[in-house]
Amino acid sequence: MTAPPDPSLDTLLDLDGQALVVDPEGGHWVRFVVTRVPASLEKPHGLDYSLTLHGPDGERLVGFDDAHRVARQEFGGPQDHRHSLSTIKAYEYRDAASLLADFWNAVDSVLRERGVIT
After folding, report:
1. Whole-number Cα distances in Å, 43 to 67, 77, 102, 115
2. CB neighbours of 25 closer than 8 A, spacing ≥ 6?
């Protein structure tokens, strides 16, 4: 059975290659790398993606990535996952709109913790 088309996928794909400053005074920025790949067991949604928030020094503060092996991986084989500083947790990809919403919620949370937004 084939998954139904994801109407939000074009929005996600259109962000590929974009880097956006989210805190001009403090230097925080986000980057999107999103490409289609053949669907496989490791990437059943047919995407290779990395959505990241970076601090002023370039350090990755938050990242949502597709399924690939990562150092210190605690959840078995390749699986979509989320980075938060040094913590890596499994992430359940549902659709492009949910991925974007989850990413922006994580960005807001970190910026709130850092006192960038209220």
Report:
1. 6, 12, 19, 36
2. none
Residue with tokens 């359940």: 92
Instruction: Report residue 30 as tokens.
Output: 């986000």
Which DSSP category does 80 fall into?
Answer: E
pTM for this model (two decimals)? 0.84
**CA pair distance 66, 35, nearest whole angstrom:** 11
Which amino acid is located at 28 in the chain?
H
Residue 65, number of CB atoms within 10 A of its CB: 19
Dump pLDDT digits (tens) for 73-118: 454 555 677 777 678 888 888 899 999 999 999 999 999 999 999 8
Nearest to 108 by CA among 45, 22, 38: 22
The pair of structure tokens assigned to 102 is 């989850």
Residue 5 has what DSSP assignment? P
**Which helix (H) or strand (E) element contains residue 13?**
helix 9-14
